[in-house]
Specification:
mainly alpha; three-stranded antiparallel sheet; 20 helices; 14 strands; SET_dom_sf; SET domain-containing protein; SET_dom
C-alpha cells in the first residue's frame, strides 16, 4: 500500500486537491469552543460545561448534525477514554455497507491493522474496551442493552482503522484540535524519516476564503497497486452521502519527485534521533521504520549530530577512548534533567529558574566516572553538542522563557528606565536563542532537506524576535529613535537577491524554486556576513551564548573533538558596546537580518504550504506592518 507520482513533480507543488475527511471529531477540550463540523473557533463565548456538538453556522449544522445524531455518540459515557477516536469510529460506521468483506484487513479501502492491534500489549485492552463502549451506545440508541455474548468485531475493526489512519488536525498555531480519517488518496501515503512531501490542514467556515486552498489542484499520485487487488472497493462508493464541510487536507512536495517515485510524509518529529523516532512510531503506529535514513550505516550526519555529546577531561588522555561507552549514560542523565526542568517550567511557571537550570547544564554539563586507571578513577565532563536534539529543544524553551521574563519586567515593575533596560536585555537574549536555533537547524537542513518544516517556524520566530528588538522604544533611551532605520532601503540588499524576490508579486515562482539551493546559499552568506556586526551586542550578558562566535557559522565544530575549556569570543573589543555609533550599527544590522530571516521563512513556507497559506500571509503582514 503506497502512493506514487503520476508525473515529475517539482519542489513546492500541490500533490493533491483539498481532501474532505471520511470521518472526524474534535477533542473533548475543544467541543465547547470550536465548530464540530468545520473546526473553526465559535464566535460566541465557550460553555465550560457543554458536552456535545456545537456549530458556527446553519450549513455546518445541516451537514454534520444528522450524522452526529445518528452515530449514537451521545450515548457514550462522559468519562470514556479515547472519546474522539470513538466518535470518529461511530460516524465512520454509518458509511459502511451492510456487508463488509475482509474486515480483519481492510474497511472502506483502508488498512485496519486489526490482528496486530488486538494482539498488541499497548492497544489490545483499549481497543476492546472502546469497541464495547461503541456497541453499547449503538444498542442504547435503539432502546436495547448490550449482552456479554454480543459480537463487537465490527466496532473493533473500525476502531482499529481509526487508530491506524487518523491524523491530528492542527490549527495555524500548531494546536491539535481533533482527529480526522481521510480516504486512500492520503491514508495510503506512507511514512519516511526523510520524506519528499508534507501536508497542511485547511480549517475555515463555509463560504470563507481559505488560505492555501486551490480546488483546481489535481490528484498527482496513484496507488502502486489497485485497491481491487486487495479485495475491496473504492471508499468513494461508501461515502456518497458524506460530509460537505470539515477540516480539509492537502499534500505538497518539499523535494523534487520523479515519475513513479513513492510519495512519503512524516508521522513524527524529524529533529528527534533515530531511537526516539523508532520508539514513537512503534508505540503509536505499530511499525518499525525502514526508510533510507533509518537503515543507512553508519548513521547520517544529522542523526549522529542529534545525539552527539562533547566530552573533555583536562587530566585524562582521550586517546583510544570510546565515547559510545558513555554517550547513553550522558544522554539519559542530561535528558532527564532537562525534562524535569521543562516540566517544572510548564507547571510552576518560573521562567527565571528555568533559564538558570537549562543554561547551567548547557554550559557546565555534568561528570561521568570512567573506569579505574593507574591514577584511580577519572571523571569525564560531558556537554551537549550544539546540534544535540536536547540542546535544540532547550534553545526553544530558553527563547520562550526569556521572552516571558521580559514581559514580566514590564508588567510587574515600575516603568523606570532601569526596568525597561532589564526587559530589553531579556528580549535580546531571547532573540539570541531564537537565532541560534534557526542557524543550527539550518545547518542540519542543508544535509537533510526534509527538515524544511521545522526550519520555516524557526526562521519566522528568529525574524520576528529581531524585528521586535530593532523596533523597541528602549533605543530612545540611547538617543536612537526608530527613524534611524529609515536609511535601510525597503526590500533591497546589495549582497543577495532575497529581498528582490520578496518584493516581486509572485514569491518563488517556478524558475526560482528550481534555483532554490542557490537562493538558500546566498541568504546564508548574506546573514553570516552581517552577524558579526550585532551578535556580541545581542547576546551580551549570557555566558552560554557568548561561547558562540557566530549563530550561523558552525564550521569550527568539525574540529571540536572535545569541549573547549577556554572559549570566550566576547572579550574582543569588550568596550565597543558603550559606543553610540556601535549601537546604531548593531541596530541597523539586527533590522536587516531580521528582515532576511522573515523573508527566507516566507520562501520556505511557500514551498511547504503555498503562496496563500496562513503562515505565508502572517509573515508578509508582519514585515509590511514593521516597514510602515
Amino acid at each position: 500500500m503506497e502512493m506514487r507520482a503520476k508525473q515529475d513533480i517539482e519542489i513546492g507543488d500541490d500533490i493533491t486537491p483539498p481532501l474532505l475527511p471520511l470521518s472526524f471529531s474534535l477533542h473533548d477540550s475543544f467541543l465547547s469552543s470550536h465548530c464540530s463540523s468545520c473546526f473553526s473557533p465559535l464566535s460566541f463565548p465557550p460553555s465550560p460545561h457543554h458536552y456535545g456538538s456545537l456549530y458556527c453556522s446553519a450549513p455546518c449544522s445541516s451537514s454534520h448534525s444528522p450524522i452526529s445524531s445518528s452515530s449514537a455518540e451521545s450515548f457514550l459515557p462522559l468519562t470514556c477514554p479515547l472519546s474522539s477516536d470513538l466518535r470518529t469510529a461511530l460516524r465512520l460506521l454509518l458509511s459502511l455497507p451492510s456487508t463488509c468483506p475482509h474486515l480483519h484487513r481492510f474497511t472502506n479501502g483502508l488498512l485496519t491493522n486489526y490482528l496486530k492491534l488486538t494482539s498488541s500489549p499497548e492497544f489490545a485492552a483499549q481497543i476492546r474496551q472502546g469497541a464495547i463502549a461503541m456497541a453499547a451506545a449503538r444498542k442504547l440508541r435503539k432502546g436495547l442493552s448490550l449482552d456479554q455474548s454480543d459480537d463487537v468485531l465490527l466496532e473493533e475493526a473500525v476502531l482499529c482503522l481509526v487508530v491506524t489512519n487518523a491524523v491530528e488536525v492542527q490549527d495555524e498555531s500548531g494546536r491539535s484540535l481533533g482527529i480526522a480519517v481521510y480516504d486512500p488518496s492520503f491514508s495510503w501515503i506512507n511514512h519516511s524519516c526523510s520524506p519528499n512531501a508534507c501536508y497542511r490542514f485547511i480549517v475555515s467556515p463555509p463560504n470563507a476564503t481559505s488560505f492555501g486552498e486551490d480546488s483546481a489542484s489535481a490528484l498527482r499520485i496513484v496507488p502502486s497497486v489497485s485497491e481491487e487487488n486487495f479485495g475491496v472497493c473504492s471508499c468513494s462508493e461508501y461515502n456518497k452521502e458524506g460530509y460537505k464541510y470539515g477540516p480539509k487536507i492537502m499534500v505538497r512536495s518539499i523535494k523534487r519527485i520523479k515519475k513513479g517515485e513513492e510519495v512519503c510524509v512524516s508521522y513524527t518529529d524529524l529533529l528527534q534521533p533515530k531511537a526516539m523516532r523508532q520508539s514513537y512510531l512503534w508505540f503509536n503506529h505499530q511499525f518499525t521504520c525502514s526508510c533510507s535514513r533509518c537503515t543507512v550505516f553508519p548513521s547520517t550526519f544529522v542523526d549522529h549530530a542529534l545525539e552527539e555529546i562533547l566530552a573533555s577531561n583536562p587530566s585524562f588522555s582521550s586517546a583510544g577512548l570510546d565515547l559510545n561507552l558513555y554517550r547513553d549514560e550522558a544522554n539519559k542523565k542530561l535528558s532527564h534533567y532537562v525534562d524535569e526542568t521543562n516540566t517544572e517550567f510548564l507547571s510552576v511557571g518560573d521562567p527565571e529558574s528555568c533559564c538558570k537550570k537549562l543554561e547551567s547544564v548547557l554550559e557546565g554539563g555534568f561528570h561521568v566516572e570512567q573506569l579505574e586507571s593507574e591514577d584511580g578513577k577519572s571523571r569525564l565532563n560531558c556537554k551537549f553538542h550544539p546540534f544535540n536534539h536536547i540542546a535544540l529543544n532547550s534553545y526553544m524553551t530558553l527563547a520562550s522563557a526569556y521572552r516571558i521574563r521580559s514581559s514580566d519586567f514590564l508588567a510587574f515593575q515600575s516603568k523606570t528606565d532601569e526596568s525597561q533596560l532589564k526587559a530589553f536585555e531579556m528580549s535580546r537574549i531571547s532573540a539570541g536563542y531564537s537565532l541560534l536555533l534557526a542557524g543550527a537547524t539550518h545547518y542540519l537542513f542543508c544535509s537533510e532537506s526534509s527538515l524544511i518544516v521545522s526550519a520555516v517556524n524557526f526562521w519566522k520566530q528568529a525574524g520576528e524576535s529581531l524585528l521586535t528588538i530593532a523596533g523597541s522604544s528602549v533605543w530612545n533611551l540611547l538617543g536612537l529613535p526608530k527613524s534611524e532605520l529609515s536609511t535601510v532601503v525597503k526590500y533591497k540588499c546589495s549582497e543577495c537577491s532575497l529581498m528582490d524576490i520578496f518584493g516581486a508579486k509572485s514569491i518563488l515562482n517556478q524558475a526560482e524554486r528550481t534555483n532554490f539551493e542557490n537562493i538558500s546559499s546566498d541568504f546564508l552568506a548574506c546573514v553570516r556576513s552581517a552577524s558579526p556586526k550585532f551578535w556580541r551586542f545581542l547576546i551580551h550578558g549570557c555566558h552560554y551564548l557568548e561561547t558562540f562566535k557566530d549563530p550561523f557559522d558552525f564550521r569550527w565544530l568539525a574540529h571540536a573533538h572535545c569541549v573547549a575549556e577556554d572559549v570566550d569570543f566576547i572579550k574582543e573589543d569588550s568596550n565597543c558596546e558603550h559606543h553610540a555609533e556601535w549601537y546604531t550599527n548593531a541596530r541597523t544590522h539586527i533590522y536587516k537580518v531580521g528582515m532576511h530571516c522573515l523573508v527566507y521563512g516566507v520562501i520556505l513556507a511557500h514551498i511547504c504550504y503555498g503562496q496563500n497559506s496562513h503562515l505565508t500571509t502572517h509573515v508578509l503582514n508582519h514585515v509590511e506592518n514593521f516597514v510602515h
